[in-house]
Structure formats: structure tokens, C-alpha cells
Automatic annotation (TrEMBL):
Residues 847-857 have a biased composition (Pro residues). This is UvrD-like helicase ATP-binding domain-containing protein. One of its GO terms (molecular function) is 3'-5' DNA helicase activity. Pfam families: UvrD_C_2 (PF13538). One of its GO terms (cellular component) is cytosol.
Length: 877
């Protein structure tokens, strides 16, 4: 490329940066002006905050575009020229002529998909490489005018692509906006409607494509998606940290990313699950089991009558009354906790009638019996009409007394308890009788597997459901107002059944005390339990009446305040009919609404705090790991089914994970359009020599899968080293040091069977103290030691896989896990094994012990993250 070319491109790029600076200055100054206004009224505050959020989002986009602002140019047959970059820049003085087009616009598309076979009118595609604001290189694809056969293997912008692929890893995924390939571009820009499934082998760019698609959809449908948000579901927290820079670097900051478990704002997984149990808990049939468990908790008295001994009297609750009350509550279509109100109301009504009849019977006995000795027998079958002897106030008082009576409450709790999801699931596991009745579809052995006693302390400080219920009811009880008596939610007239405490007994405790806190199984919850808790929450229903009543009370107070304000400003002019008064323009209710405080939390904050939040689009990465129950949980978050699902069924490690996209998605697409399927076939990560080893493992899986085609070979043979069990720790430590020496920059991962994580981490740490490990590992560390599941979706320059035999034995999907482990490296791979090498790894070249590395001397790698890896490596040895 001539220096003239670089000079002229530099001039153009510099002019773009000048415009970017101008835009930044204008936005910053607008932000300052907006923030200077100290608004006292909530609505004005809201507008100010919305304007400042808008400025902040624009500034974030400008900042994100700074590096690599312009990276491409297209020259068309007719002489038209388009520059492509990270954001659109227009010439305001020339009718908004585009100077730089955003990569997501249709006009930019030929940059990614034009080939010699399908030129789309492009004569030349130029990749422009920049460092900071300086143009450092140009690469041109000049298309011949003659049409030739399309080639499936054709890469777009090879030099730029290989420069990225060969660069050392940093522990953070980067965007690929400058080098998106044609098969990836098609997926990124695919229609947002419906479910899109992208199946692809390791390193084919599924994660990269899914994230660029999220950015594309946010750009194309910003109005719709900005309100409801986009959710990215990833397999583990380390993965979410690994990808967290990608969308911000594309100028998108409003995406929520979470693991499946984090979508349930309550209990957290506290321990790993046994594979057999994880598989069982993942089955969709567990949804039926939970539904049956809920119905089982809606009970009837054992005999024909239930005796309730209150302090004053003995009440006899007829079984038939409970049958009717239960049918009424069930048929209402309300969820369990809300339907309890109807059940309680019907039972209390029957008990009130019984007490009133008692009064009537006494009256009759005293006044009538003498006149007609058979009066009791005559009246008893149809009742004494006792309620008609009491006026409405007396009856209301009687119902309140009955609801507050501890014996009556205990009986109601036995028959129809308020349940938290944690309580339902933990008590289901704990009680073999409930399990047997709720889970007839499971075998006795499976039910035994599910059985787990309750944790001894019985309460779970993390039971958010109960905490929220307690807070809400405490708030409701603490704020006296019209709602407390005869007002919203508490009167006999409106709610009849009582108050805002969610159980209808008017005691304000929300029954939290009676649920005994939040039970959990001994040992705590596991990741496989979380979808069950979410399902239980869905069946039980959120009890939001306390919060609703509190909100209504707030509003009444605001209306009263607004009325006071209107009275004051109208007072002096009240008698003059000529003068228009404030009350002619606005009433108190509307004035109050204008003063309502807006919810200023970000979409992410609101969405993650609200279990019932639904997103405009959901991306599921490593989707093969989701169980059927987890899918139910994710699907609830996306009723529109606008979803991008990316994964690889050959990499499924979770025993409850997916083996067929069709099968797992069938329940959600039965009545709608079928999911669209796309596949990615080119492996950008793993060099061909390593992929050949992984492909041998892949060949042992059923059903057989096609390995992806590696885009590059590096000429470095993957090796294996046999060591004795005793030597494993020290040899591993020396190998790590030797490999670090070889690796001038980048990252090294030691991938081990989950059961050996602690022991092998200790061995590596003896040589490299800064080694990071486990789910919370900091990926910028020079060395990380991870179990295979924790390495899902990640990549490293060098990978050492330890004890493949144990990886294979540790889980029914051991071979899938080994396949994942072998396909994480971007440069080199070594395997340390203690027994015979598994036959599927025969292709590995036998190696001698790590040479030239002194065995002891632990190496300091302090400060490596902030200095150049090469420098700190040198300093550390
Ligand atoms: N078009 C591209 N240009 C540059 N780099 C790319 C491109 N496509 C993919 N890559 C790189 O290839 C690597 C693998 O991509 P990614 O992690 O998205 O693959 P994956 O299919 O999700 O892999 P796995 O299934 O193993 O998790 C990443 O470093 C990614 O940045």
C-alpha cells in the first residue's frame, strides 16, 4: 500500500475524529446544563434525569467508538464510496450526508458479505487499521469483475482476521466488529422475531455472534428493546466477566447479563449437585410434581368435622364446608397464595354463621322453648337464622375476631397455608409421604434420591420472598391511614377477607411467622434447585397485596396533600367568579399523579430484582447446558419468544442438559412458528493440530458430530506426558513454569477434574503464587486452574489438561467435558496423565519431562496485570 494512500486515509480519519470531538463537546455541555438544574418537583426531576441518562448513553457510545472509529471503506462500481465504522457520523452542513456509516446499518452490510462471487456492486473493500487515532495499515480486497463460483471457505479480510486470532489472549473477550465473517453476519442481522438457534462447534464464534446480534437488535429496534431490555444468559459468573466488555465496547450498556440461577431473586446455590440428582431435578415432569405438591397442601379435615378449640367456645368445622371452600378457591383460577383469601373467607363465613347460630339457639332456648318444646329440632337442620339477628357491624366484628383467633388461624394454616417457594420445595424433599403423593410419575428409587431432610436451623436468611413479605406487611402496618379501617384492601366491603397482609387474617404478619422462616434442605440449595424454586414461585403466586395496599395508601396521602395545596392557592380568590382558580384547571388526583416519584433504577436493576420481569429479547449462550426445568424458567422471561439460542450439543456437560434442540424447544413452539436453525462451521479459535485431537474425542460421542474446520494451523503439535500419581503435583508445577517461559504473552489455564481442583491448585500455586482458581477466578491472572465446567465458553493461549481418565469417569458426560477441555487453546495444548493414555487421545505426541526448569523457586507474578506480561515474566523468574 502506498504512503499516499495512508496519508489520504489519515486525513479522512482525522476529520472523523474532529467531528467525534465536536459531538463529545456538545453532549458534555448539554449534560452540564441539564445537571445544573436542581429540580424540586418529581416530574421535572424525572425529565432532568432522563435527559442526563440520554446524554450519558451518547457519551458512552462516543467513548466506545474512540478506538477503531473507522475500520473500513467500500468502493462501488458507480464510484460511490462508503466509510464503515463503530458509529454513524453525518455532515450537518451538507444535508446530513453520511461521513461514516454505523456497522449495523444495511448500507454497511457489503463490507462483511461481499465476495468475489457475490460482489454486491463492490469493486474494492478496504480494511483500515488504526492505533489510537493514527492509520497504521490498509488491506484491500479488489474484486474481479468476472463472476466466479462461490466458495464456502472464503474468508473476509484475512490479514485483519489473522492478526486478531494470533494475538495473545487478555482474559477479556473483544468485539469482532472489524472482521465479522459472512456466515456470522447473516446470523447477526437475522430477523428479531421468533427463536433462532445457532448450533456450532467450539470456537466458531457463537458467543461473539450472539453478542453482536444483541448490539445489532438494540440499534435496529432501540425504542422497543430499551424499555424491556435484552437479557444475556451465560453458564457461570466467570464467563459473564469474560464477556462483559464486548457490548460496552460496541456502545451498548443496557443489556442485563445473568446466569440462569441469578434470574431467581431469592435463594442461591450453595453446593454442587450430584449428577444423577441434577438430571432428575432437570426433568420437565418436576413441574407436574410441584403442581401436585401445591394441591396436596390444600387439605381437608381428616374426619367429618374438625374441632377448633378457641378460648371461648368449641367450633366444629365441617369437612363439607372445607370441600366447598376449596373448590371455590381452586376454581377461581387464582394462584395458591392469592386463592387462599377465598378459602379463608368461605371458612370464616361458615364459622361466623355457626357462632351466630349459637347465639340464636340460646335466644330461642330462652324465649321460645317453653312455647314449643320441639323448636330446637325444627330449626336446627336449616340453621337458626342467627346471622339475621346480628347487624352488619356485629357480623364484621365477629369475622375479625374469628380471623384473629390463634386456634382458627392454626386450623386455616393447616388446611391452606401461605407458602413460600423455598418452603414448598424444601418440605417436598423432606417428606417421603408428600413426595409419594405428588410424584407418582417417578420411581420409588427416584423419589428416594430426591429425599433430603430439612436443614436443622430451619431458616434461610436468604429467603427473599419472606423478607419482602415481612417488609411489605411491616410497612403496611406502620402507616396508619384510611386504608386501615374501611379503606382500600382492609374493609369488609372491598376485601371482606381482611387486610393487606396477604393471608386475609388481618394480623399484619403475612403468616411469615407461621411458615417458620424459609426452610431449606440440609446442605443448602443447588443450581438444579433454582428452576424448581422459580416454578414453585410461579405456582404459588407472588403475594403483592401488601405492596399494592401500601402504594394505594401512599397515593391517598398524596391526593390529600394535593387537595390541601389547591385549597391554599384557591383560598383568597374563592369568592370571585371572574377569576379562574387552580381547581378549574386541575383536580387533586391529577395534581398528585404529576408529583409521583418515578422509578429511576436502570433496566438491569429493575429486571434482576423482579422475578416476573419479561425481556424484549433474550440471548442464551452455552444453551446446551440448560435443563428442561431451566428452559421453563428462561422462557417465562420472554413471552414474545424473540430469542437467540447459541450452543453446541457436543459440548453438553450438565447431566440434565440438551441433546436435541428440536426436542427441548418443542413445548414452546408447538403452536407457533418453528425455531429457525443456523449453523457455524469455522473454528476461529483452535489451531488445526489441536482440533484434530478434539475431533477424535468428538468421534466417540453419540450421535456423531462433524467437527468445525479450523481456520489456521500453527505447526505446534499437542503433546502428552505420563507421570506417576506421586509426581503429578510437582511435575505439573514445573510444566506450568516451563509453559509460561515459552508463552511470551497471554494466558495459561490448567483444566482439571472437578474432584481434584483443590489439590492441583495447591500444586500450581507452589510454583506460581498468583494463580487464580475456581468460579471466582480473575482471568487476567497469568495462570488459572479451573474445573472443566468453569472453563465453558472461555479460551486461553496455552491449556494443560490434567488426568483425562478422571475427567471421563467423573460424569456420564465425561467425554463431552474432555472435548470442551481440549478445545479451549488458541496456541498450544498439553495433557498430563497418570495411567495409560485413553485411546481417544492416541494422536497426542509423547513428550519428555519438562526440561530446563528448576523445580523449586516459586515465581512471583505480582503486578503482572498492570505491566506487560513479557516484562513481568522476566522479572518473576
Ligand atoms: N469473525 C471473527 N473475527 C475475529 N475473531 C473471531 C471471529 N469469530 C470468532 N472470533 C474469535 O474466535 C474465538 C472463539 O469465539 P467464541 O468464543 O465466540 O466461540 P464459541 O463458538 O462461542 O466457542 P465455544 O463453543 O467453545 O464456547 C474468540 O476469540 C472470538 O473473538
Amino acid at each position: 500500500m502506498s504512503t499516499d494512500d495512508i496519508t489520504s486515509e489519515q486525513a479522512y480519519v482525522s476529520a472523523l475524529y474532529d467531528r467525534l470531538d465536536g459531538l463529545r463537546r456538545r453532549t458534555t455541555s448539554r449534560l452540564r446544563t441539564v445537571l445544573r438544574h436542581s429540580e424540586s418537583l418529581p416530574r421535572a426531576r424525572f425529565e432532568r434525569d432522563a435527559a442526563s441518562a440520554d446524554c450519558a448513553a451518547t457519551l458512552a457510545r462516543i467513548t466506545a467508538a474512540e478506538n477503531g472509529l473507522c475500520f473500513g471503506r467500500l468502493d462501488f462500481d458507480g464510484g460511490e464510496r462508503r466509510y464503515v465504522g463503530r458509529m454513524g457520523i453525518f455532515d450537518e452542513d451538507a444535508d446530513y450526508e453520511p461521513l461514516l456509516i454505523d456497522w449495523r446499518t444495511p448500507a454497511a452490510r457489503p463490507f462483511y458479505v461481499a465476495t468475489g462471487a457475490a460482489r454486491l456492486g463492490v469493486r474494492r473493500r478496504r480494511h483500515i487499521t488504526t492505533r489510537r487515532r493514527e492509520v497504521t495499515g490498509l488491506d484491500d480486497d479488489v474484486f474481479e469483475l468476472a463472476v466466479r463460483e462461490p466458495s464456502a471457505t472464503e474468508l473476509v479480510g484475512e490479514p485483519a482476521l489473522f492478526a486478531t486470532l494470533n494475538a495473545a489472549r487478555t482474559g477479556r473477550m473483544s468485539d469482532i466488529v472489524e472482521t465479522i465473517q459472512a456466515e456470522q453476519d447473516r446470523i447477526i442481522r437475522s430477523d428479531h422475531r421468533g427463536i433462532l438457534v445457532v448450533q456450532g462447534g467450539p470456537g466458531t464464534g457463537k458467543t461473539a455472534v450472539a453478542l453482536h446480534r444483541a448490539a445489532y437488535l438494540l440499534y435496529t429496534h432501540r425504542d422497543r428493546l430499551a424499555r424491556s431490555g435484552v437479557l444475556v444468559v451465560g453458564p457461570h459468573p466467570t464467563f459473564l466477566r469474560y464477556i462483559e466488555n464486548v457490548l460496552p465496547s460496541l456502545g451498548e450498556t443496557s443489556v442485563v447479563s445473568a446466569t440462569v440461577e441469578a434470574l431467581y431473586p431469592g435463594a442461591r446455590a450453595q453446593r454442587p449437585e450430584e449428577p444423577a440428582l441434577a438430571e432428575l431435578k432437570g426433568r420437565a415432569v418436576l413441574a407436574d410434581v410441584l403442581a401436585a405438591a401445591v394441591r396436596d397442601r390444600q387439605r381437608l379435615p381428616g374426619g367429618q368435622t374438625l374441632e377448633i378449640h378457641t378460648e371461648e367456645r368449641l367450633l366444629l368445622l365441617e369437612r363439607s364446608t372445607c370441600v366447598r371452600a376449596r373448590a371455590l378457591a381452586r376454581e377461581s383460577g387464582e394462584l395458591h397464595n392469592q386463592a387462599r383469601t377465598l378459602f379463608v373467607r368461605a371458612v370464616i363465613e361458615a364459622l361466623a354463621r355457626q357462632v351466630a347460630d349459637g347465639y340464636a339457639a340460646e335466644t330461642i332456648t330462652a324465649q321460645v322453648l317453653e312455647a314449643d318444646p320441639e323448636a330446637l329440632d325444627l330449626l336446627a337442620p336449616a340453621g337458626f337464622g342467627g346471622t339475621s339477628l346480628l347487624d352488619d357491624d356485629d357480623l364484621a366484628q365477629l369475622r375479625r375476631e374469628l380471623r384473629a383467633d390463634p386456634a382458627v388461624r392454626a386450623a386455616l394454616d393447616e388446611l391452606w397455608p401461605v407458602l413460600s417457594p423455598e418452603q414448598l420445595v424444601a418440605e417436598l424433599y423432606a417428606d417421603p409421604g408428600t413426595l409419594a403423593s405428588a410424584a407418582p410419575e417417578l420411581t420409588a428409587a427416584e423419589r428416594r434420591l430426591l429425599h433430603r431432610p430439612l436443614a436443622e436451623d430451619g431458616t434461610d436468611p436468604d429467603d427473599a420472598w419472606l423478607r419482602a413479605l415481612r417488609d411489605a406487611t411491616a410497612g403496611a402496618a406502620a402507616s396508619p391511614g384510611p386504608g386501615d379501617d374501611g379503606g382500600v384492601g382492609t374493609s369488609e366491603g372491598s376485601d371482606q377477607d381482611g387486610s393487606a397482609d396477604g393471608d386475609g387474617d388481618g394480623d399484619g404478619d403475612g403468616d411469615a411467622a407461621r411458615t417458620g422462616g424459609g426452610p431449606r434442605p440440609a446442605g443448602g440449595w443447588t443450581a438444579a434447585d433454582i428452576p424448581l424454586l422459580d416454578e414453585a414461585a410461579e405456582l404459588l403466586g407472588e403475594d403483592d397485596r401488601a405492596a399494592r395496599a401500601a402504594a394505594l395508601r401512599d397515593r391517598l396521602a398524596r391526593v390529600a396533600y394535593a387537595q390541601g395545596v389547591l385549597d391554599i392557592i384557591s383560598r383568597d380568590v374563592e369568592d370571585d367568579p371572574e377569576i379562574m382558580m387552580a381547581t378549574d384547571l386541575i383536580d387533586a388526583a391529577r395534581l398528585a399523579d404529576r408529583h409521583e416519584d418515578a422509578d429511576l433504577r436502570t433496566i438491569a436493576e429493575r429486571a434482576l430484582a423482579d422475578r416476573t420481569w419479561t425481556f424484549g429479547h433474550v440471548v442464551v449462550d452455552e444453551a446446551q447446558e440448560l435443563s428442561e426445568m431451566a428452559w421453563r424458567m428462561v422462557m417465562r422471561r420472554c413471552p414474545t419468544r424473540s430469542m437467540t439460542i447459541v450452543g453446541d450439543i457436543a459440548q453438553t456437560g450438565d447431566p440434565a442438559g440438551t441433546t436435541s434442540w428440536e426436542r427441548v424447544l418443542a413445548p414452546y413452539t408447538a403452536s407457533g412458528p418453528r425455531p429457525r436453525q443456523e449453523s457455524l462451521t469455522v473454528n476461529y479459535r483452535t489451531p488445526a493440530e489441536i482440533m484434530a485431537v478434539a475431533a477424535d474425542v468428538l468421534a466417540t460421542l453419540r450421535p456423531p458430530q462433524q467437527p468445525p474446520r479450523s481456520v489456521r494451523a500453527l505447526g505446534l503439535d499437542p503433546w502428552r506426558l505420563r507421570v506417576t500419581e506421586d509426581e503429578l503435583g510437582p511435575v505439573l508445577a514445573r510444566t506450568v513454569l516451563a509453559e509460561l517461559e515459552r508463552l511470551s504473552a497471554g494466558q495459561l489455564a490448567v483444566l482439571v477434574p472437578a474432584g481434584r481442583l483443590a489439590e492441583l491448585t495447591a500444586a500450581v500455586r507452589a510454583a506460581v503464587p498468583a494463580t487464580e482458581t475456581g468460579g471466582g477466578a480473575r482471568l487476567s491472572a497469568p495462570v488459572v486452574v479451573l474445573g472443566i465446567r468453569e472453563a465453558k465458553g472461555l479460551e486461553f493461549d496455552t491449556v494443560l489438561v490434567v488426568d483425562p481418565d478422571r475427567v471421563l469417569a467423573e460424569s456420564p458426560r465425561g467425554a463431552h467435558d474432555l472435548y470442551v477441555a481440549l478445545s479451549r487453546a488458541t496456541r498450544s495444548l498439553g495433557v498430563l496423565h497418570t495411567g495409560e493414555v485413553p485411546a481417544m487421545l492416541d494422536r497426542l505426541s509423547p513428550a519428555g519431562p519438562p526440561a530446563d526448569v528448576p523445580p523449586a523457586a516459586p515465581r512471583s507474578t505480582e503486578g503482572r496485570a498492570s505491566t506487560s506480561p513479557t516484562a513481568s515474566r522476566a522479572a518473576g523468574t
